[in-house]
Every structure is written in structure tokens, then in C-alpha cells.
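Methods, example record. To illustrate the input and output format used throughout this study, we show the complete record for Raptor N-terminal CASPase-like domain-containing protein. The sequence lines were provided to the predictor; the line carrying C-alpha cells was produced by it.
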Amino acid sequence: MALGDLMSSRFSQSSAAVSNHLDECSNHDYMNFVGQRRDRDFDTASSSYGNVTTTTTITTTATSMAYLPQTIVLCDLRHEAFEDCVPAGPSDSGLVSKWRPKDRMKTGCVALVLCLNISVDPPDVIKISPCARMECWIDPFAMAPQKALETIGKTLSLQYERWQPRARYKTQLDPTVEEVKKLCTTCRKYAKSERVLFHYNGHGVPKPTANGEIWLFNKSYTQYIPLPISDLDSWLKTPSIYVFDCSAAGMIVNAFIELQDWSASTSSGSSLRDCILLAACEAHETLPQSAEFPADVFTSCLTTPIKMALRWRDILFIYFIFITSFNSIFFCKLFYLTLINWFEGRIKERAYIAVMLLLNELLCHYRIPGRQNDRKTLLGELNWIFTAVTDTIAWNVLPHDLFQRLFRQDLLVASLFRNFLLAERIMRSANCSPISYPILPPTHQHHMWDAWDMAAEICLSQLPALVEDPDADFQPSPFFTEQLTAFEVWLDHGSEHKKPPEQLPIVLQVLLSQCHRFRALVLLGRFLDMGPWAVDLALSVGIFPYVLKLLQTCTPELQQILVFIWTKILALDKSCQVDLVKDGGHTYFIRFLDSGEAYPEQRAMAAFVSAIIADGHRRGQEACIEAGLIHVCLKHLQSSTPNDAQAEPLFLQWLCLCLGKLWEDFTEAQIIGLQEDAPAIYVPLLSEPQPEVRASAVFALGTLLAVGFDSSRDAIGGDEECDDDEKIKAEISIIKSLLNVVSDGSPLVRAEVAVALARFAFGHNKHLKSIAAAYWKPQSNSVLSSLPSLAMKGTGSGYTTPTQYMPHGSIVPSQIGPLLRVGGDNQSGSSRWEGLLQ
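The corresponding predicted structure is encoded as:
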């Protein structure tokens, strides 16, 4: 309905905006109005009187104008809405609707291929001494080669499982080509249409070839066997993601892109969009061999980001913490002497090796207290901050569609790309540049990394106390408080035409914490109130699942702001109604609507949300009816007396619209409404002073009229026929009420009356056609002479001919009733209508 669309667009403005508009209108329009009147009086005085009386007239007029009543016209919301309808610039109609990911996906299977060949160096690699040795934080030379290989494989699988526990993991250690083929085909068969991750560690084989071939082994481990990337692609198919941790990994990416380009030129090429690649370095680069890095530094960044970040950024800080904890003079002297030699460039190899081995030993046995998924612990806090920082960096540097694909579509892919940003930062310090496909812009110098460094240092400053006393309370970092303050500053000075707030992803992360949740929701509500563009940004960054989950909470102080936020969301995107009903969120708003503590304006928002849930959504209508929404709305309408000054017009308006949407084209709901005597409750609202309330009441009454009857009920008699009689009586009563406002001064009300009458005519077109045919059919003199007397029956209006004007109240009883006896078609139905109408 046009009314529903108009009201939906108007309700998207906040009450604060309404008050501001009225204030501006009162001041500005009144001054213009008074100024124009003064100009006209001045001109009249100048033309009618001489120069002597001009000054006196002007003074008298100005004095009298000061005491005139300040009548302000055409400044209600409906007038502003009319001005908004006039196109004044580019349309924003296509602003939103792209925030929801096109297809949610998950990684169902992970294939891990490790080609380490421990104790045998590949022929094209010259290692420095000392060099990086750690694989998955395990020293492969500290145990037997086969045992080390198996341990590394199990550890890598566990590291991936932290990010996707529900995936199936399969590992191949130093495999042949046939074993890799079997692994890939098995993973694709199990994953079906889900994504498959292929991880390749090539530290024990030569670099990839210029054609993009990776190296495997023969069965006897005497030869390196190449595997073309085309074969790998044909086995894994799409969707898939590849991780290549080897030197010159960029050659594989280049070959893969060429393969996809060739496929796109010869076929549909749709698979290109479903393939993602992460490579440790560019085609001309070699992996870092420095001993302070692990050998698989790229894999360590992707799978253990917190540990790798602390090792790289705070390695000296951690070392000093352990020196303090051990209180050993020997360690202090050894570290001091080695550090002096290191910075002076006179590093002795044995001392350097000793320090690195000692540091590795300390770091490997060291565990940060807490759990990764517990934000109240040190490890959980660090992981939480890291997620917020990397999401913020990605949100601010990536196009929104690419951000949606890489950071919101798949949980495992999102985690890997967050960690990939860390890999770029760490490995670039070692003159190595990780690459990806799709290509990401450089992020290693983004200023949010400084915020991460500061937050990590503050968290780690509590480490000695936590190590000494595991039961000590962990003090949360001020990171999120500071970021919320920065977001609040942007709200005070930002606008649609300025750069979007970079803290928006952090605000969403803060919603996970109870201590900051209320403030974050209030700030988020302020941001959404800035316009549809702000709602679009919030939905694009991922607000929807957060606020949907918050509807399951029962915290009283969050109810009002959550209702406001959902009002903004549904005013922009009606499709969210499906998710609300699916998760049972509609009951949250019905309870709020029925609460007596909320203000009428706030309950009007809940009524708006309920109306959107039921708008054109049969499951939403059924769910709201099952929750008793009809009774709740009618109760509030009945409690408000006509023309009550305390009754909020906006609340009444949306109660009417909500009920209208509930029983629109829904027979069961219409029957419930008639049983609850809804028409009698709506009649007083037709005389409300606000035209929006009257129009909404007419809309609700109009949707109570059935457009048509079910064909399955045509042959049913008995009680069903009696039920139809009662329904027809109720509909005629509604029509009589609507005819009283058919000449309403508001065109909005008259339009809704016309629509309601059209619904009635369409629902009973068969009977009305017979009446119209009988009315216009040439009759005998006896019949024509009887029409005036029939027309005057029970009316006392003094009709002489059928063509004379008839008052509204006499149309149905004086004309339609008698004429039903004239037609010859469907005599039984006409006789029923005769009894009902008279």
C-alpha cells in the first residue's frame, strides 16, 4: 500500500530529528511569514498615504504585528515528506540491498600436504648458519626424522582446527603424486559444494618451476616429481582456497591466474571467482632463513597469529620478563653481552646460537595464560583485540564487496585473511612480501598496527603477576574504551560527505562484551540515525548477526536502544523480517510493545517493527498472531480515548498499520479481528485530528475486508454459510463507517477510503455486478414506479428518481437492498444479501 510505504519512509527519521525540524520550521518559517507581511504593509502604507503618515503607519503596523497570533502552517511531517518526494538530486534508491552475502559458505575439508624430507636439503637451497629450523613450533632435529614429520603434521592439523573445528582434516606427509591425487579427490567428494582448503609446505623440495609446477616425491624418495597446477585444480575444483608455503610461491599464483584466464576465454570462467590463493612470497623471493623466525613463518602467522606477533614484536620484552622471573644473573650477563655484540655488528656465532636456542626454548615452553575464546583472560583479550584491529584494517582498505567475500562469507577464510595481514607485516620486515589472490593493497604500515602494539604491551605488562599468581584478576585493556571514544568524536563532527568512521568494525566487536555493550549500542544508534547510508555501512560491516543475537538477551536497559536500531534496519531493508521470525525475534518486540514502562514513541517503534515483520510475509503474520499481537494492539487502541491529548498520534498510527498488515489478505487473522470487535474499536479513531491516524485507521478497516472467498468453501452450507453471513454483516458495518469519512479533508484519508471500497467491490463483485445490472436494466412501469417508494423506505429522504443525489448513509439500505430482488441470477445469494442489508 502507498500508505505503508509513506509511513515507513517517514518513520525512519528519529524523534530527535522531528523535534529539530519543528524548531527550525517554527523559527525560520515564522520569521519569513512576518517579514513578508511587514513588506506588504509597508508598500500599502507608502501608496495610500503621504510621506507624513508613512512612518506612523509603519510603526503602528509593526506594533500590531507583534501581538498577532503566531499561526504556523504546512510544517507537519507529511508536508516535509511531500517536499522530500520532489526529486532534487541523484536518487539513493539503490543505496542498499548489497550488504547481505550472496551465498554463505564454509570450508568442509582441509588437505594438508607437507614435503619436508627432514635432514635432506633440496638442491637449489643454500642455507645460512644458523638458520630457521622450527616447523609448527617444533624442532625437527630434536627427534627422529619420521617421528618429527608425524608430530609436525598432527600439530599443523590442530592449529587449523582452532579456526574451523567442524571441518574434516586429512594429511599427507612427503607424498607421491598419486597420494596427492587421492587426497584431493577424496576431499572434494566429502566437501561436495563446500570449500576445500589445500595447504602445501614445500620446505624440503625445490622451488616451483616457471610453469607453476610444485614438487613431490617418488615412492623411493630418490627423485622429485613435478605436479602441474592444472592437475591440482582439476582434482580440487571449486570452491577452494590454496595456501603455498614455499620459496618463489608467486610462480604458482602467476601460473594459476594464467590458467584461469585461459579457462575463462574458452569457457564460462565462473570458477575464477571461487578460487582464493595465499602465497608466502613473490616469484623472485626466498623465504626468510633468520634464526629468530621459524622456518614456516608464513604458516605460523596464518595459524598461530598471537604467538607469532608476540615473538616478532615483543621478543625482547618477553625475554626480560623471564629474566626477571628466573632472577638469574647468568642469563642477564649472557643476554647483555650478546646484545652488545649484536648491535655493534660483532656477533660471535656460538654466542648467537646459544642465545637463539635459549630464547626458542623459553618461548616454546612459555604459554600465555587463558583461553583463546575467553575474552576475560589475557590470551582471549589479545585475540579479541587482534580480530578487531585486522577487521578494521581490512574494512578501511578493501572495497566493500571484496571485504564481504573474504571476511564475512566463510569463517575459516576470514580467519586466514586476518592472519594474512599479520604475515604481510612481519615478513616484509624480512624483505619478503606475501601475496594473495584476490590481490590486497599493502597494509603493513597501517596506523591501526600502532594501536595493536600499544594494546599488546599493556596486556603483557600484567604477565609477571599472572604467571606468579594464576588466580590473579586480569585487568582488561583500555583499547576498546579508547576506540569508542574515537568513534564518539567522529559522530560529533562526521557526516555522509566525510570519510566513514574507521572504528565501525571495532564497535561491532565491542557488542560481544557486556561491560561496553550499552555504550556501543547507543553510539551505534546515533550513527544509524544519520541516514540510510549509515545503516548501509553498518550492515555491510556485519552488524546484522550481532544485533540479531542480542534479541535473545533480557537486559532491560538494552531494550529501548535495540528497538531503535531494529527500526532503522527494517526501515531500510525489509528482508530482515525472515531472519527475525526464524530466530523468534518477533516476540521481543511484542513484549516491548505490551510493556507499560516504555514511552509511546518507543512503543511506536516496536509497532513499526511488528508491522514490517508481517508485511507481505505469511509466516511472519502467523508467528505474530500466535504471540497474541492482535490482542495487544487492540488493547492499546481501546485504552486510548478519542481526541485524548495524552495519546501519542504516532503510536496510534502504527498500531493501526500493524494490525492492518497482520490481517491483510489473511482470512484467519481477519476472523480473529472481527471476533475481537476491531471495527468498533477503530470507529473513534476516524475522528482523530491527525490525518495520519485517520488514514491508518481506514487502512486497517479496509484490510479487514476480504478480497475474495476460497473456492473450497463455495459448496459448504450450514454453519459455514452462517459464518459468511456474520462476516458480511461485519463488512457492511465497516463500509458504513468508511462512508462517514469519504469526504474527509485529507487526500490521504480519501485515498485509503477509495482503496477500501475497491477491496469490498472486488471481494463481492459477483453480487455487485448483479445489482448494477438490475439497477441499469430497463424495467416495467410497475417496477420503475416502485423504485421511489423503495428508495424512500426507511430513509425519509424524499427521493423521486434513482438519479437524484443520495446521502452517504442511505446508499446501501435504500438502494442496494430493494434492487437485489430484481436480478434473476443467483437468487439464493441475493436473498441472503437482502436479509443482511435491510
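Annotations derived from this record:
The mean pLDDT is 79.
The two ends are 33 Å apart (CA to CA).
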